[in-house]
Amino acid sequence: MRLSRYLLPVTKESPADAQIVSHKLMLRAGLVRQTAAGIYAWLPLGLKVLRNIERIVREEQDRSGAVEMLMPTMQSADLWRQSGRYDAYGPEMLRITDRHDREMLFGPTNEEMVTALFRDAARSYRDLPRTLYHIQWKFRDEVRPRFGVMRGREFLMKDAYSFDMDEAGARHSYNRMFVAYLRTFARMGLRAIPMQADTGPIGGDLSHEFIVLAPTGESDVFYHASWDAATEPETVDFDDADALQRVVDGYTADYAATDEKRDADREAAAGDALRQSRGVEVGHIFYFGTKYSAAMGLGVQGTDGTSVNPHMGSYGIGVSRLVGAIIEASHDDRGIVWPDAVAPYAVGLINMRADDARCAAAADDLYARLQAAGVETLYDDRDERGGAKFATMDLIGLPWQIVIGPKGIEKGVVELKRRATGEKVELSAGEALARVRG
Ligand code: ATP
Ligand code: MG
């Protein structure tokens, strides 16, 4: 993409209304713009990141055996009356009346809708287990939308729902998601710690929030220091329930809990190794048994012929919140430092002197070669000062920068810079191409 044809409204000053670094950088780097309180437009560069995150989430959901579908944002109030949540949900729900005076709502979550759809489609134990997911915009009229996309009112969520014949099956489905989440966040370059979370009025011990440590996070968290050196999740057979349980047991062996689920005994056992921090909740998984299936009349025929209410779980990931969370975890004083897997472009190609025919020809040529090699490149071909171009590239945080200038042309080299380390090397255009292809 040529920057001369792009929409990238970067700013030097930090916007006054932004309190945390990710929000400031998202505005300064031209990723998003607020269009109403807690509602954001995704500008081209921000959308690229959002799509990359969405793709990783989707790939790991698919790998774990979940099946993608797409449910609408608009829902009918009657659907929510079936579960009794229409009146219970409170002012976070955006209620809307259509032209025929029918009560509608902009979905804050989809338990009711997916339960109704499954009730319509599943007949017997042969139709289970199933895990369905979608990636769809949600609306919650948050009391205090803040921190940009971290706590928006309209936000993109991946939500999955599992249906099993019994609790043991539901636990297996839960464990699938648990491991899928570990893999998902690790691929984004994030360390998200699964923490015991409150299950609310339903009780039980099956709820984990996946928390990225950040001083600006909204959650208070407590954990064993061993988490500071967490390892990459291993490859597992998602169909092997026992193997999966062992992996989950391994990951939950060390203490990690949100404020609501602190455990005095385990904290005492941790002793000096107990850590307290703040964190951002990027995912939440939940087993809630037959709450919705029983309330909404979802029954399937069991092996003995009787009707069984499936055991269900729900599993959310804050896709748009992740954009902010990744920036909180990966930036420096010059701007964003995107992990390779989610970077909007792999390479920022800078022509130092757009007014110099030789520089322009060399930059055009390398740009064409990068494109031919399938390397996503943002090419700063604008007639601007070199200093401004460098500052913009550092701010938007692409993993690699390639700089073409008159001195290098004399020597037959370009400068390749790794954004994360600042390391610079001079090499031929062909060598630079080989390096960024990895
Ligand atoms: P929170 O405690 O942060 O309000 P929640 O418990 O309401 O979160 P869930 O209903 O479990 O969240 O939603 C699943 C995921 O969606 C959360 O883990 C979070 O990453 C994301 N999320 C929830 N609310 C928002 C919001 N207002 N803006 C952006 N992302 C959100
Ligand atoms: Mg909430």
Written overview of the protein:
By secondary structure, the protein is an alpha+beta fold. α2 (44-63) crosses α10 (319-329) and α6 packs across α7 (241-252). The longest helix has 21 residues, at 167-187. The protein has helices at residues 21-28, 44-63, 77-83, 85-88, 111-121, 167-187, 241-252, 264-270, 291-295, 319-329, 357-372, 386-396, 406-411, 429-437; strands at 32-36, 39-42, 67-68, 74-76, 94-97, 103-106, 130-139, 154-164, 192-196, 207-213, 219-224, 256-258, 274-289, 300-301, 307-308, 311-318, 331-332, 335-336, 347-351, 377-380, 400-404, 414-418, 424-427. The protein contains 14 helices and 23 strands. Bound molecules: adenosine-5'-triphosphate and magnesium ion. Residues 109, 140, 142, 151-152, 155, 157, 281-284, 316, 318, 320-321 line the site of adenosine-5'-triphosphate (ATP). Adenosine-5'-triphosphate (ATP) is lined by residues 109, 140, 142, 151-152, 155, 157, 281-284, 316, 318, 320-321.
Query: CATH superfamily name of the largest domain?
Result: Bira Bifunctional Protein, Domain 2
Structural class of the secondary structure composition? alpha+beta
Helical percentage: 25-40%
The appropriate CATH architecture of the largest domain is 2-Layer Sandwich
Mean pLDDT metric: 95
